[in-house]
Amino acid sequence: MQRDPVTWSPPASCPAPDTTPRKAPALRQPSLSEIFPETAADAAAPAFALAHLSACSGPVLWIQDRLSARETGRPFPPGMGGCELLHLQVSRAIDVLWAMEQGLGCPALGAVIGEVWGSAPAVDFTATKRLALRAEAHGVPAWLIRRAAPPELSAARERWRLSSLPARPEPDDARAPGTPLWSAELFRTRFRAPGRWVAGHDPATGDLAFDHAIGMEAAEAARATA
Amino acid sequence: MTGGDKLPVLAFRAPHIAKARPCAANPRQLARAAEALRQATGTAPEPRPAPAPGPIPAAPEDSFSPVGIPRRRPGPAAAPPEIRRGGATGGTASDDGGPVARRILSLHLPRFAVERWCREALRRDEAPPDDLPFALALEGAQGPVIHAVNPAAQALGIAPGARLVDMRAICPELRVAFADPRGDRAALDRLMLWARRWCPWTAIDGTDALVMDVTGSDHLWGGEAAMLEEIAARLAGLGLTCRAAIAPTRGAAWALARFAPGLCAAEELAARTDPLPVAALRLDPATIRTLDRLGLSTIGALRAVPRLSLARRFRAGLPEADPLLRLDQLSGRTPEPVDSPDDPPRFAIQARLAEPVLDPLPHLPELARALCAALAAEGFGARRLALALYRTDGEVAQAQAATSRPSRDPDHLLRLFDGRLDRLDPGFGFDLITLAALVAEVLPDRQRRLDHAAEDADDLARLIDRLSARFGPQTLTRPLPAPSHIPERQVLWRPALHAVCRPFAPRLHRPLRLFEPPEEVQVLYAVPEGPPAQFLWRRQRLRVARFAGPERIAPEWWRDRPGTRLRDYFRIEDQTGRRFWLYREGLLGDGRGAEPRWFLHGAFA
């Protein structure tokens, strides 16, 4: 599913007089969030999840099923900015859920990130509800990255649809890609209004910033509020 | 292998010897064991050497042994004084760590191969009747050779080692099958493990016998005689004939098991073994023949010969050809410990069940609690656990679990076996369950936090244990930095059970994900040294909108093959904003192969 390039124009030419970069809207408490990357193979979704955990307090338990590891590669710690990592590779989606549940019961972890490839029957409303409640009970943020899967019924407190955008220009090299930008659509949420932003690291502070919300189409707004 | 190590682990030991002790054989302690044996057997009373500091003093005259056996005699300075005063106390373990008179059980299974074959044939319902002669044969140099026979065939005079055609001439109705020595060996291995139900220290002895160190274990079975009865009954239940003997030394036990089964106390060792033939000394046939020709047909006769003469006559290197060495081993003058394949665990708990059960789970919590109490009493924590389930039909089912830091929390240890016992085959049921801490480490008591908050490091260690136990230790990994600049060699993924976390220095322009192995792409470029203009990856055509690079990473000449080509890495962004890490392997015309190939190695955020 490719993003339609017409709906967005490069940030350099975008008139944004009053949209100073805002801080990332924080969740009220750590909970379960889901990310549906629009393009499966790139690393936007793990980067977006990691960007939320910038104040990483403990090791991150990273769980991949077999197909996710094969199709999108393994995490590469030199590119991850010094966060401590525990990597678990399992074969089935249900094992991902089991391991996430175990990890969420351990407050020593900074976060639990799970990756499931494809639409797995095991990842249903009950399973995600269990994860969300457990994450909230122990205060461990959980991220479920679901590639090549339609957004089915789920109890995740926030559900994002994510795709890459052309990066900010590099100041020294006009031909090179700079810091990354993503188009992040919060299409289902419990604590705040859904919306659509250009997300990226603030070049000055390095924090995650959400620039100028992109106007949602009427159909999307109806779907988000349904 | 200290003397204390071989004690049965079922009894908890006195706390003041709970020190970390070396596991390797210590010559000093072996010597102590020998000393104890010598005192126990009452043979060779030696004058105690006078205390003299310095190196090992010259041995007394009567212990001179020119055969080349290393004498393990401690110098007076080497032996701790408390060992000296301790004497053998009637064959029981003394609690103060003093010397112990060993009790060795030799279990001879004279018809193991035939009986095992018959048992398997019985399962297929084609076992021969007991009263018909039956033999197992092996392929020999000149045709098949008899390997083992059943009693009916033995009564007809068919003996192992004879050629099959000759035996067919004696007994035309002889039924023959081919033997399986390797299978017999494996079965004996399993039986050896199963025999740990009686004592913790068992080993295989030859092709048809087991040897066990039952020192201190017999009281669990109501004495040695009752223990022998129990062993015979159990093995008879498996369809095995056995002959067993318990003696103070391994040599004596071996001899008595084959020639006069039964118990042999330390003081009657000489009286019981003297009438036995010299074949009871574990000698090779040539030496036995030589001794027979010399008129030395019994052990007593051999013992009457002066040691020096024997040593002079049989100065061979191998123990099988050395009657003097065998005689010393029989009498306990030369130590011969039971060489068990693995040390018995120091902490183990057994549950003996009245009836075989198919599901051992209800018994585990009690075992785990008892084990943890034993660990706590000595200030230890378990690092590796083994659950052994002894089946009634002579097999052992095992499951192991490991922990990343020592633990003695019964609930946690029990959870490590969750879901692991479903795959164990219960056969006709388990009647004995052993939970042992194979590896235990010192775990001092610690003050819990006053607010009862759980401690983070403990929580994390438990999580690692559980995930490793469930999915296998290789699946849960931690990255460790490695000294290399090749991207795929920069990270070592090590099992989190054993690895300690070390931080990575973040590098600029490194991808978030790495493809293993790199995926080859078809590339269109303007100039061969430059970046690609377009490439085909996973059947998608990606147009390069922006790029940065190249960053050259040269091969590690000290590790790589000579023809390895360098890599030029490009960070590229395609038309939809996806960012990848591509490299070209080699240069055009670098003399290391044809046209350079392109690979996609990673994905950026």
Per CATH, what is the topology of one domain in chain B? Dna Ligase, domain 1
What is the CATH top level name of one domain in chain B? Alpha Beta
* Helix vs. strand class of chain A: alpha/beta
Overall pLDDT metric of chain B: 82
Spatial order of the strands in the main sheet of chain B? 15-16-17-18-19-20
The biggest sheet of chain A, with number of strands, parallel, antiparallel or mixed sense and barrel status, is: 10 strands, mixed
What are the key terms here?
heterodimer; A: 226 residues; alpha/beta; Rossmann fold; 10-stranded mixed beta sheet; 11 strands; 22% helix; disordered N terminus; B: 605 residues; alpha+beta; MutS, DNA mismatch repair protein, domain I; Dna Ligase, domain 1; 6-stranded antiparallel beta barrel; 5-stranded mixed beta sheet; 16 helices; elongated
Fold and architecture overview:
The complex is a heterodimer of chains A (226) and B (605). Chain A has 226 residues and is of the alpha/beta class. Chain A has a domain at 27-179: 3-Layer(aba) Sandwich (Rossmann fold). Chain A is 22% helix and 27% strand. Chain A contains five helices and eleven strands; from the N terminus they run ββαβαββαβαβββββα. Chain A has helices at 44-52, 66-72, 93-104, 125-138, 218-225, and strands spanning 22-23, 32-37, 60-64, 74-75, 85-89, 111-117, 142-147, 158-165, 181-189, 195-201, 208-211. In chain A, strand 10 (195-201) and strand 11 form a beta hairpin. In chain A, helix 3 runs parallel beside helix 4 (125-138). The longest helix of chain A has 14 residues, at 125-138. The model of chain A is unreliable at 1-24 (pLDDT under 50). With 605 residues, chain B is an alpha+beta fold. Among the domains of chain B are: 112-183, MutS, DNA mismatch repair protein, domain I (3-Layer(aba) Sandwich), CATH 3.40.1170; 347-451, DNA polymerase, Y-family, little finger domain (Dna Ligase, domain 1), CATH 3.30.1490; 513-603, no CATH class. Chain B contains 16 helices and 20 strands. Chain B has helices spanning 27-41, 81-85, 112-124, 151-155, 164-170, 181-194, 224-237, 250-259, 269-273, 285-293, 299-304, 307-313, 323-331, 364-378, 410-415, 456-471, and strands spanning 104-108, 134-140, 143-149, 175-178, 202-204, 209-213, 243-247, 262-263, 347-357, 380-391, 396-407, 430-442, 476-481, 491-495, 513-525, 532-537, 540-553, 567-574, 579-585, 597-603. In chain B, the strands form five sheets. A six-stranded antiparallel barrel of chain B has the order 15-16-17-18-19-20. In chain B, strands 5-6-1-7-8 form a five-stranded mixed beta sheet. A four-stranded antiparallel beta sheet of chain B has the order 9-12-10-11, sandwiched between helices. In chain B, a hairpin with a 2-residue loop joins strand 16 (532-537) and strand 17. Residues 1-24 and 43-99 of chain B have low confidence and may be disordered. The chains are: A alpha/beta (226), B alpha+beta (605). Chains A and B meet through helix 1, strand 4, strand 5, helix 3 and strand 8 of A and helix 16, strand 13, strand 15, strand 17 and strand 18 of B. Strand 4 of chain A pairs antiparallel with strand 15 (513-525) of chain B.
